[in-house]
Design goal:
This is Glutamate 5-kinase. It contains 15 helices and 13 strands. With about 375 residues, the protein is α/β, with parallel strands linked by helices. The structure holds adenosine-5'-diphosphate and ligand VHF.
Amino acid sequence: MRAAHAGAGRWVVKIGSALLTACGAGLDMAAINAWVAQLVRLRAQGRQVVVVSSGAVAEGMRRLGWERRPDAIHDLQAAAAVGQMGLVQAWESCFQTHGVHTAQVLLTHDDLADRRRYLNARSTLRTLLDLGVVPIVNENDTVAFDELRFGDNDTLGGLVANLVEAKLLVLLTDRDAMYDADPAQNPAAQRLATAHTADPALDAMAGPSGGPLGRGGMQTKLRAARLAARSGAATWIVGGAIENVLTELAEGADIGTLLLPEQEPLQARKLWLAGNLRVRGRLHIDAGAERVLRQAGRSLLAVGVTAVEGDFRRGDLVACVTADGREVARGLCNYGAEEARQIKGLPSSRFAEVLGYVDEPELVHRDNLVLT
Ligand SMILES: Nc1ncnc2c1ncn2[C@@H]1O[C@H](COP(=O)(O)OP(=O)(O)O)[C@@H](O)[C@H]1O
Ligand SMILES: N[C@@H](CCC(=O)OP(=O)(O)O)C(=O)O
């Protein structure tokens, strides 16, 4: 059963500061090299990987010669800005020895709350993955403060799992698994092998952080797993100190805690779409488009659209209706209403000529479409 969740597909792997730095003091290159060797192996086995990497503040502190983690947010932001240079340098140089490119992706909460920016982040990440590049994601600490912050990289990992529709989110931590109580408080605590993210009993088991470097403890890991589950990803909480831990997971080893989502990825995403957003406009589609949507479950192309109603933006939810006003489907439109009016009836090959750019060849991608 574990192996089924560790198969091919996209993995988001979150590695916390404690696992990348030598006791919080600067980056541990040997550790990063070892992570890279495992990640490269996962890729060679047919998986795509996104790394969510902490460590910027710790490396910045070392570079600036600071011994204590500062309390002032501006100092933390400055340390993160300095340290992020070293962090991406470290990942890039280690991956380069395997001939693999990396990309720096810095995100704030705002980037994912705003539909347009969400779609842009999503397309960029997907493009990077299709190009065979390993995105190295961290919070954009320079601009993120208060309500713009994710606050911890566990949460960021959960949201990135939604963005790339990951199959698995791996949260590496200092304990070897999630326990039925905080082992720092209760030495008799037992490992939880498998559970459902939605199980309310988990809340009472997850405590706050025990370590000096960790910030969220098990509570933020549980919350991240619940976020990831919204798009159908399973989450594996497992010890970063276990030898070859990622390779072990890939083989379905009985280690760590596997938290299962209630829904399969596609179904989860579609339910989320259907339930959470307001319809901002209507695309009138022809009989051919209705047929491919209903029977073949395909994307909606502009060529099948005859009219565009409403004032919506890229990423908004639109309804697809037939000439006689029946609603066939709902989905997130890759183009705003203005652009959609310009490209309706046209093949995707003409988008660049008409708009001056191409966002996506589909008007509504099938992954973002729910039949109604
Ligand atoms: N139920 C639990 N099972 C395991 N660890 C728990 C639990 N509740 C609280 N914790 C604490 O959470 C810590 C791990 O989280 P954290 O310190 O944020 O680490 P990381 O840097 O790996 O994100 C553990 O050291 C442990 O003390
Ligand atoms: N963005 C911060 C990471 C914050 C964070 O969540 O750290 P951790 O609890 O070690 O995963 C940094 O790079 O230092």
